[in-house]
Amino acid sequence: MDYRSSDAIGATDMAAGGVHIPGPRAEDRMPETVTSAVKIVIVGGFGVGKTTMVGSVSEIRPLTTEETMTQAGIGVDDNYGSETKTATTVAMDFGRIGITDELVLYLFGTPGQERFWFLWNGLFEGALGAVVLIDTRRLEVSFDVIGRLEERGVPFVIANNTFPDGPTYPTDELREALDLDAHVPIIECDARRRASSRDVLVTLMRYLHEMALQRA
Q1: pTM score, two decimals?
Q2: Which of 106, 110, 92, 108 shows the shortest CA–CA distance to 46?
Q3: Is the sign of the CA dihedral 201, 157, 86, 162 positive or negative?
Q4: Residue 51 CB neighbour total at 10 angstroms
Q5: Among residues 35, 79, 38, 42, which one has the least CA distance to residue 57?
Q6: Closest CA to 110 of 128, 130, 85, 96
Q7: Using one digit for the tens of pLDDT, what is the confidence trace for 137-190?
């Protein structure tokens, strides 16, 4: 993965008549110590907190593709539990976070509505693993998401985004309800908080490392 190519933007675009295209902000530039980058995808049903997680944990200004929700989504998108939501991701969210001085994660948040799932093919290309965000008020919206990951053979962890009015279940009951193998990690999180979201990503990286050791 060419993880430094984006930092090269900022030269004069001669094809545009000599217009200067601004490059990334100084605080968004890739640290010189970075030698490796890993692509991670954050998935889940509509309104479970994917955009929130990318925004809370990203060290750079996150790229979002949120659009205002319209009447066209009524009867099509299931917004139970998210009735106050006024915008939705229509393509992807993107952020970046450093795990060590040498390793960074590229974070891609997927759209939650099933009508946008055709975009997943491109977003999953080259992804090492995934975070599945769940909402215990609407566990059923996670079934198809998990099924698609299992079909693709993408390793994932479950992050239970704890909403104030969400019911609380023991981990074993969640695992049974989601029909998960015993080795798939389940972790509680608050997607609004940077430290909590980072813990989820660290859990995923440890899980991927353990899987790599088992295959070695």
Answers
A1: 0.75
A2: 110
A3: negative
A4: 24
A5: 42
A6: 130
A7: 999 999 988 998 999 899 999 999 999 999 999 999 999 999 999 999 999 999
